[in-house]
Amino acid sequence: MAKTERVTAPRRKGSQTRADIQQAALSLFTERGYDATSMREIAEQLGITKAALYYHFDSKEAIIVSLFQDNMRALDDLLDWAAGQPRTPQLPSEFLGRWIALSARQGLRTMRFAAANHAAMRTVMPAREGGPMERIGRAAQLLLGPDAPLTDRLRVRMALLSVHNAVLAAQGTDATDDDILTIATQAATLLVGDLFPAPRLPVPE
């Protein structure tokens, strides 16, 4: 296996160092495997000391937990935004587009790690309430209302999972992040069909 190139970077702010650690760890965990990667290797990848690494995270488990917590907070912010919007015909399309874009922007690398490290995921992030599926349920209710037929609720839930499913389908292929986002959006569009207009992705800033 080719040696991972070490990254040396200028002095970072604390929040940037934390984000850099998360992304470097994800890359190493996905490439080498969670169990085969040490905290020392993560520090070396970033060109920082182990003391600097441990200042932000006391273990590999803490890094992964922080990533998923950050993802859940971002979904909560999106759900809060949707709950505060007027119930216009365009809202479901805009909300689903924002959900897909957020999943692609913030969750793709995390999903790839999870797909490549099933055993570690079961240990580090055991199944519990208040996770992604609880938020998907809330999102489906926001999109459809509380009394929608089960078949409609399942279709919307599948649309909300489109990026996750596209990541799984892309394993073993040369699909890029853009490819995954494109096919996930197409799949979501087919799933919501006659329920509301196709998801409208936000314009990149």
From TrEMBL:
Summarize which parts of the chain are annotated to bind DNA, as ranges: 38-57
Q: Give all residue intervals belonging to the HTH tetR-type domain.
A: 15-75
Q: Which InterPro entries match?
A: DNA-bd_HTH_TetR-type_CS, Homeodomain-like_sf, HTH-type_TetR-like_transc_reg, HTH_TetR
Keywords, alphabetical: DNA-binding
Ranges in coiled-coil conformation: none
SUPFAM superfamilies, alphabetically? Homeodomain-like (SSF46689)
Give the protein's recorded name: TetR/AcrR family transcriptional regulator
